[in-house]
Amino acid sequence: MRLADLPTPCLVLDRAILERNIATMANGLARHGVPLRPHMKTAKSIDVARLATAGQQGGITVSTLAEAEYFAGHGISDILYAVGITPQKLDQVAKLNSVGAAVIVLTDDLDTAGAIAAHRQPPRALIEIDTGEGRGGIAPDDGLLLEIAVRLGPYLAGVMTHAGHSYAGRSPDDMARIAEAERAGVVHAAERLRAAGHAATIVSMGSSPTAMHARRLDGVTEVRAGVYMFGDLFQAEIGTHGVDAIALTVLTSVIGRRPGRLLVDAGGLALSKDRSTADAPRDYGFGLVLDRAGARSHGDAVVRRAYQEHGVVEADPAHPLDLPVGAKLRIAPNHTCMTAAAHDRYFVVEGGDEVVAIWQRANGW
Amino acid sequence: MRLADLPTPCLVLDRAILERNIATMANGLARHGVPLRPHMKTAKSIDVARLATAGQQGGITVSTLAEAEYFAGHGISDILYAVGITPQKLDQVAKLNSVGAAVIVLTDDLDTAGAIAAHRQPPRALIEIDTGEGRGGIAPDDGLLLEIAVRLGPYLAGVMTHAGHSYAGRSPDDMARIAEAERAGVVHAAERLRAAGHAATIVSMGSSPTAMHARRLDGVTEVRAGVYMFGDLFQAEIGTHGVDAIALTVLTSVIGRRPGRLLVDAGGLALSKDRSTADAPRDYGFGLVLDRAGARSHGDAVVRRAYQEHGVVEADPAHPLDLPVGAKLRIAPNHTCMTAAAHDRYFVVEGGDEVVAIWQRANGW
Known about the structure:
- Two copies of one chain form a homodimer.
- By secondary structure, chain A is α/β, with parallel strands linked by helices.
- The first copy, chain A, has two domains: 3-11 and 240-360, Lyase, Ornithine Decarboxylase, Chain A, domain 1 (Beta Barrel), CATH 2.40.37; 37-224, TIM Barrel.
- The first copy, chain A, has helices at 15-30, 46-53, 65-73, 90-97, 110-118, 144-152, 172-195, 208-213, 233-237, 268-271, 336-340, and strands spanning 10-14, 60-62, 78-81, 102-107, 125-129, 156-161, 202-205, 222-223, 248-258, 261-264, 288-291, 302-306, 311-314, 328-332, 345-349, 357-360.
- In chain A, the strands form two sheets. In chain A, strands 1, 9, 10, 11, 12, 13, 14, 15 and 16 form a nine-stranded mixed β-sheet that branches. A seven-stranded parallel β-sheet of chain A has the order 2-3-4-5-6-7-8.
- Chain A is elongated, with a radius of gyration of 21 Å.
């Protein structure tokens, strides 16, 4: 099977780039001697998880219980569900843990900590620390930290933070500064717990930008990152990697032609409506247009508008886009996690036109 | 099963509102004596299709060949695939048509028209007319119209237009004006074809706003509309219906609490990153927050930020949101087609808390 034969729109995953991205992150963290707990929210694929966990401690991070169930079913037991748990979800966690998984949950809430400890089969839990993102978590020096620890009792496994505000950084120095605040905050929280006599075995931090740019990681026991595996235009804009590190693209067909533009069959569903590059130095619309081989033959052509199933490609005047209806293009996405989630499988290539594998995804909840 | 028992996030579809919306559109078009060919791109569900086609001619519109295959498999044969066809997709259409379906395709391209006519099993085809949207289609008086008709030969079935630019309208008068341009343009194209001796059996127009607000439809043989079934905040903002006509919401759980805001487990994946109301009179962020019963108990609370799996709810100061972790809310979406597409099923209610049915969706391509 070749790319020319695939129904469109669909996902193309270049394993050569994927493996290079995984090696870059693994080598970067190896310098610090800190293992990676790869975040599978982007890839949601056991095939990708096997590559990303190779040489690491074997654990992964997930963003849904559907992912936890899928990966547990494929033999991965050490799973951190890194979204705040609710009391109602504990039964599902217990069910996974009763058949061999070891799903760790997350909370920043006193009542929920009580519900965890009172459950008939309590999972281990991390306390979420806010090191500047302002989403979930409590401040490292919040008095609530010790109260939650007491409430969790023997089920407390440590602390976790996510410096998602690193996405507002625009340079390696920005990222290094945010990474250090992330590290210092979560380590401080762990030290407060230990000083009060609690265990804090796991001290988990991470986002792709801070994982890539952290200058020290002492006190941290693991780093989480996910989007680095596939990369995207937004991560390229903020300096996590280069544009040539984007492993995931959407294969699309030309379905209409006009002077200076094309209609393609990748619209808002196939690409997502994510517009993160609108706030980046360079705005790629809904994605950068590549040729079928994944090369930048069409200059700065982007998907300027996205309807449900139609994308409007605006040509770069220096690179006319004279293609017939049915011709195929590839679109590099703004935000790879959002784009991948609309599709149920990857058509895997190795830099070329031949499809060497089809890998499934675990979508939904 | 009750809403309180459902895993979150998930889709809740209120059948009472759905049936009212379907009746409103059917009654509106019945006044013109023009049948509806409901667009199933929003609902992608046979259960919804059965309600929407009741009392109509039985045909539907789809936006993907996956939908065409799904609906054909459920016994609907008259299917208009209303996205420009490519030569490569004709085999899949032929396969469906060889087992009882009658899939009609769409083109505005001379070479593609030739490929249709030259196929071993040509489908019937409509020529796409642009009546102002500037997406697909040729102008009603374009010379290419007759050339494409000649190329299609006996497979020409008529003309189709979509006034998607009605989404830029903001009043019934705007919509009526756009609807009239849509009607006049597509009817003019049909008349040109007939004057040249071609058949133009089907004269198809539509979008939910123009279907709702058209003041005359003479010369039109069918109207397409889809989003009206479920409704959304954007359609409410442009006057297609009221906020109380939104049949589809996302059920979500509180996963974190802060002064003035809540974290919920409906983020960018469960709600979509669609920000269409950013350009509407009222900006609802990523969705309007309702209580578990679907009532507006929380005033103007909206989902202000959306991460992959986290939504940040900003409370209305006049309606404090003092809810525990695990409490359930419902979110009315900006753009119902995009939101529904992230989910594989509907939990159906009848205005109350009890789940009376589960309906599946046909996602993907």
